[in-house]
Amino acid sequence: MAANGYTDPEKQKLLMEEHVEKHFMSSEIVRDIIIGVSDGLTVPFALAAGLSGAQVTSSIILIAGMAEVAAGAISMGLGGYLAAQSEADHYIRELKREQEEIISVPDIEAAECAEILSQYGAEPHEYEGVVNALKRNPQHWLDFMMKFELGLEKPDPMRAVQSAVTIALSYIIGGLVPLLPYMIFPIAREAMVASVIVTLVALLIFGFAKGYFTGNQPFKSAFQTALIGAIASAAAYSIAKLFRD
Hints:
Elements: H1 8-17, H2 27-53, H3 58-104, H4 106-119, H5 124-136, H6 138-148, H7 159-184, H8 188-214, H9 218-244
Helix pairs in contact: 2-3, 2-7, 2-8, 2-9, 3-4, 3-6, 3-7, 4-5, 5-6, 7-8, 8-9
């Protein structure tokens, strides 16, 4: 019987059946999708609007847009890969440093461990046993210090590849939306009007979904996302129109 009156099987049953926490766990994937789709919707949209302002044909806008989507997807995906790889390299460096400190200065590390626990309201007589238990298991001690002292979680070995693929695919999906009207309408002005309508609707939907899944105000997020896209495309169109005239 445990100190709180529950046996281990009873505690496992309570955790599994009575305490289902509703947390959104794939925050990194959501972040990558947001980065890819938001840029994919906005950049090709602004490019197409700018070229429309320069009064070029739909076919040229489509070719330039597709080239931009391809280059943007590669660039964004590579950026995501390098960022995730840098985080993994940083974790490994800090892990080795912390491991060396546990071996060379265990008393200092134990004191730091006690200080961390005291910050959560634990009294000395309460956390001494925890510190001693961690000292008996160096791997758990190392994991504890990495998480609670340095605030670092062990990265997924596939995180860099997953980030690159997710961002790149999201960018392509987002980038095709403002270009679809140019595949249908041969006249650039008609295609531009359709592109503006379709893309703004897509930005509103995407902004709403982004706000919903990230815990922000969905309607506010939808308005902000659409506004940014509208400003970018209007600026590109106006600049192209100015130099064209």
